[in-house]
Write a structure and sequence with these properties.
By secondary structure, the protein is mainly α. The chain folds into 2 domains: 2-183, MFS general substrate transporter like domains (Growth Hormone, Chain: A), CATH 1.20.1250.20; 209-389, Up-down Bundle (Growth Hormone, Chain: A). Helix content is 80%, strand content 0%. It contains 14 helices and no strands. The radius of gyration is 21 Å and the shape is globular. The two termini are 39 Å apart.
């Protein structure tokens, strides 16, 4: 699994990515605690966290064309540099009580996260040989999952024992160090951007859409991914707190279930990088279907152990899909278009969930929570398995006769 870390360029990029992942979990946790304790304003907290998500989506979308024309390491450097200064201004604004203006800074940080993640995935394609990319994506996923698990806990401890602003200054360091490391990375040349305009971005994304639509396995995977996010993942966000309250009268089950999910994801990232199966798509789509057991277990709702097992299996399944998925994109999509195809993936993935999150409460009122949970779980399972019928899905490779459908 760690063979890819012997690659000097990837090692520096991976360390930078890991530090970025730590800040991605660290900053929202501390900001949440500061807003609750210092401002006691839940509405303000919603605006701040929502602006971060909106910023991420904007960054992920616009970074596609930028990454495909500039060297990925330059985009990563610029992203980390901007996030560092945005965080410095965020600290100043929060400490002076200007929380509303801090919303803009947290949105800028989120935007930088979108740019950084997209350019990192593109850099892997250029810096890591094809046979080592599964390993590179696996070790990247492992560091991300560990960061998502450990960073919030560490942030809470520092906030409690010292103070929140000291914790945010530590987060500044996790963004400043990557700026130094990224400069030592070598990467292939990119076509320079001579003039940025609306037509430049529109034409660039037309090329990205044309490329994405030519891979049937990609369209099938993106559809299954969108169904998973909009159905099973969204409904569990609503129903897990409800189930936890009913079983424990508190939020205890939430933390334990998400811990089991992270444990499953970490376990999968350790082992999936060692799989060299030709039918890796079979592993990926079956893995994605596993998450359908989460809403089914919540619908059954009589055994907390069954729910925890479902979350653990769901975590395994998601990483069993994610790692081969990104590896396939890096292999099958030309390096000059990876940024745009990946940004299209992020746009669909992160864009559909808010819609169903708004609809599900009404559906629960009409049909009842059990029926909605069963529907979400079953459609996730069946859509993932049906995707395997699409040519190229089993191997996540394009058939000899390439498909062409212009979506733009």
């Amino acid at each position: 699994m760690y063979k890819s870390l012997k690659n000097r360029d990837f090692f520096f990029a991976w360390v930078s990515y890991t530090l970025s992942a730590i800040s991605t979990s660290f900053i929202p946790t501390i900001v949440t605690l500061i807003i609750i304790d210092q401002f006691s304003n839940i509405s303000l907290l919603g605006w701040i966290l929502g602006s971060r998500t909106a910023g991420f989506i904007i960054g992920a979308v616009f970074s596609g064309v930028i990454t495909d024309h500039f060297r990925p390491k330059k985009v990563m450097f610029f992203s980390a540099f901007v996030r560092f200064f945005a965080l410095v201004f965020l600290i100043i604004l929060l400490s002076s009580g200007q929380a509303l203006w801090a919303t803009f800074m947290i949105a800028l940080i989120g935007c930088g996260e979108g740019f950084f993640r997209n350019s990192y995935l593109s850099l892997i394609a250029g810096a890591v040989p094809e046979k080592e990319r599964m390993s590179a994506n696996a070790v990247s996923t492992l560091s991300m999952r560990l960061s998502l698990t450990v960073a919030p806990l560490l942030a809470t401890v520092i906030y409690t024992t010292i103070n929140g602003y000291f914790a945010l200054w530590i987060a500044c360091g996790t963004l400043l160090v990557p700026c130094v490391l990224i400069l030592s990375i070598k990467s292939s040349k990119k076509k320079p951007i001579t003039k940025m305009s609306l037509s430049f971005f529109l034409n660039g994304y037309k090329e990205g859409l044309d490329e994405a639509s030519s891979h049937r396995w990609f369209l099938a995977g993106l559809t299954a991914l969108a169904i998973w996010l909009s159905m099973s993942y969204s409904i569990q966000q609503i129903m897990l707190p409800v189930t936890s309250k009913e079983m424990f009268g508190s939020n205890t089950l939430i933390g334990i279930a998400l811990g089991c999910y992270s444990a499953g994801a970490i376990a999968a990232s350790v082992f999936i990088g060692r799989i060299g199966a030709k039918k890796i798509g079979l592993v990926a789509f079956i893995g994605l279907s596993f998450y359908g057991f989460v809403p089914l277990a919540l619908a059954y709702g009589e055994s907390k152990y069954l729910i925890l097992l479902a979350y653990f299996i769901g975590g395994i399944g998601i990483e069993a899909f994610n790692i081969p998925w990104f590896t396939a994109i890096q292999r099958e999509v030309p390096e000059s278009l990876i940024g745009r195809v990946t940004s299209f993936d992020f746009l669909v993935s992160y864009g559909v969930a808010p819609i169903t999150l708004a609809i599900f409460p009404y559906a629960i009122d009409i049909f009842g929570s059990d029926y909605v949970l069963y529907f979400a779980g079953l459609i996730t399972i069946f859509s993932s398995l049906i995707a395997l019928l699409v040519p190229g899905a089993i191997t996540l490779r394009d058939p000899k006769k390439k498909f062409k459908m212009n979506l733009a």
